[in-house]
Amino acid sequence: SAAAETFEFQSDVQQVLRLVIHSLYSNKTIFLRELISNASDACDKLRFEALKQPDLTGDQQELRIDLSWDKNARTLTVSDTGIGMTRAELIENLGTIARSGTRAYLDALEAGQKADAQLIGQFGVGFYSAFIVADRVAVTSRRAGSDEAWTWTSAGDGRYTLEPAEQATRGTTIVLHLKDGEDEFLDGWTLRSQVRTYSDHIGFPIRMPVEKDGAPTDEFEVVNQASALWTRPKNELSDADYQAFYKHVSHDFGDALAWTHNRVEGNQNFTSLLFVPAKAPFDFGGERDVRKGLKLYIKRVFIMDAAEQMLPNYLRFVRGVIDSDDLPLNVSRELLQNSRGVEKLKAALTRRVLDLLERIARDEPEKYLEFWKAFGATLKEGLAEDPANKDRLAKLLRVASTHANERDTLISLDDYIARMKPGQSAIWYLTADGWNAARNSPQLEALRGRGIEVLLLHERIDEWMIGYLDSYADKKLKHVAKGEFSADELGDAGSETATREAASKDAQPVVDKLKAALGDTVKDVRVSRRLTQSPSCLVLEEYDMALHMQRLLKAAGH
Ligand code: ADP
Ligand code: MG
Question: 526-532 long-range CB contacts below 8 Å, 24 or more apart?
């Protein structure tokens, strides 16, 4: 029309759009989930804003999502009575890269990653997925509290238009003009089964027209459960229900590894539903890693994403929902940061996650190793971050050791203790900057010769982590390259002492010569019980930094 203005997409959008369409074609029904998910978010936002501004809802109290289709016009329409968008918001939200994940996705592609569905799914493809099945998309929206409506239209070809529109009530209506061959989305039965399978957990009513003689009528009926999934009793929920909900909260394409769903009553009343993903998102832990994924609801009203306030950093892989009955509805981020109630909630949620992980480790060790592969390095941070749960976290630790002497055969500290030699009082470990360096270290000789197992800590975080773990189950953890070996810690019998003294005496002239020759370059030269094959090795004092740490710091200019 005459009043329509044309805009260019931000260049990144165009790129994302192309990728979404191509890489997701085989998963095309995702678009319906994404649009329903956005409509549900919009209803959540309205409910939240109406807490402060009750007149926002106006005469239209009901929050709902409607799905309808028109076979002749070949259109599919998704509308909601949510918050709506102003003209500026239409531009901002649908024409630019607003979401952090999109940029990260493009960076990943530039870095040569494969543009597969799995990868793109990790970012949540969102609104643009509409263009998988539609060659034109029209979004008409009226922001709550405003009396203007605007229509945003695009064929997904690099441009979009904006023009004023008529819309009697607040909310958003999205009309998809389906591409040739996408007729399955003009079929009530197909749509209904999609909604029931993937969007049943949406907490707002999703309605569809009642059909008569194979054609939609003007009468609508609710097709989903329309109650927040976490409020429903566990025994009414199937694994598939939980997995569908997981995908909604996490934007993950794949299934969750495990979850824990609890209602707590007492001092604090809350429901939590927490998921452990099966795989780490590809940029997990990177600089851009925003702490997202734990939604805070208060009495069924979505308040905000509050992962940072509700979970310790080392559990940042957890996704899910917490719904509190006690927090005030007008809670702010600042208040969350400083509230004692929240500290307690955080401790309770942490306990839940650790309970879940312990249960998997005990009952499904294979599955636990899968978890460990994805998030073990993250969990290790907990030893430093969460002293109160140190013992539980140490129990959950999995590391390589000289027992299997294989990089990927991991053991627990309890496994180690079960294999300790009679009389051995310490848990021995070695830190190194790589698997081969660890496995081939001469520092291992003495212990290997005595048949004592050594933990091989070869990951980047290990040296730092182990500094926070000085003992486990009343056993000291000792670095094989540090300080003196006492017979007690090695579990050696006293009988050896005499031989050792004799050997020391014999070696004294050599020791003196070496001392003179090496001068100030070493602190001391000693006869050692450390070695069985090599003639000598470098040793650190009890509180010295590990050799490879010293090298690292030197390389960094310290
Ligand atoms: P995401 O949902 O991850 O933010 P999307 O691509 O799905 O990303 O949506 C982009 C943005 O567009 C949303 O964050 C929201 O601000 C806006 N939006 C999309 N659909 C709607 C809707 N039905 N009502 C209001 N705003 C919407
Ligand atoms: Mg979305």
Answer: 527/500, 527/503, 528/446, 528/485, 529/446, 529/485, 529/490, 529/492, 529/500, 530/443, 530/445, 530/446, 530/480, 530/485, 531/442, 531/445, 531/446, 532/445, 532/446, 532/448, 532/449
Q: Contacts for 3-6 with beta carbons within 8 Å, 24 or more apart?
A: 3/163, 3/164, 4/153, 4/161, 4/162, 4/163, 5/161, 5/162, 5/163, 6/159, 6/160, 6/161
**What percent of the chain is helix, strand and coil (3-state, nearest 5)?**
45, 20, 35
Calpha distance 373→276 (Å, rounded): 13
3 state DSSP class of 392: helix
d(CA 515, CA 30) in angstroms, rounded, equals 73
pLDDT at 116: 57
404-442 tens-digit pLDDT: 999 999 999 999 999 999 889 999 999 999 999 999 998
**Nearest atom, ligand 1, residue 78 CA:** 23
Q: Whose CA is nearest to atom 16 of ligand 1?
A: 93
The Cα–Cα gap between 122 and 118 comes to 7
Q: How far is the C-alpha of 255 from the C-alpha of 250, rounded, in Å? A: 10
pLDDT tens per residue, range 533-545: 666 666 666 656 6
Q: Is 80 annotated as a binding residue?
A: yes
CA distance 252 to 239: 16
Residue 101 annotated as binding site: yes
**Contact status, residue 162 vs residue 5, Cβ threshold 8 Å:** yes
Ligand 1, residues at Cβ distance < 6 Å: 34, 38-39, 41-42, 80, 82-85, 93-94, 99, 124, 126-127, 172
Strand bridging mode 471-472 / 475-479: antiparallel
3-state secondary structure of 439: helix
Tell me which residue has its CA closest to atom 7 in ligand 1: 126
Atom nearest to 80 CA in ligand 1: 23
Could you give the angle at which helices 188-198 and 239-250 cross, rounded to 10 degrees?
90
pTM for the structure as a whole: 0.80
Proximal ligand: closest to the CA of 98: 1
Interval between CA 446 and ligand 1 midpoint (Å)? 62
Nearest partner of 22 among 91, 102, 125, 160, judged by Cα? 125
Site of tokens 């999609």 = 194
Residue located nearest, by CA, to atom 11 of ligand 1: 93
Spatial separation of the C-alpha atoms in residues 122 and 140, rounded to whole Å: 28
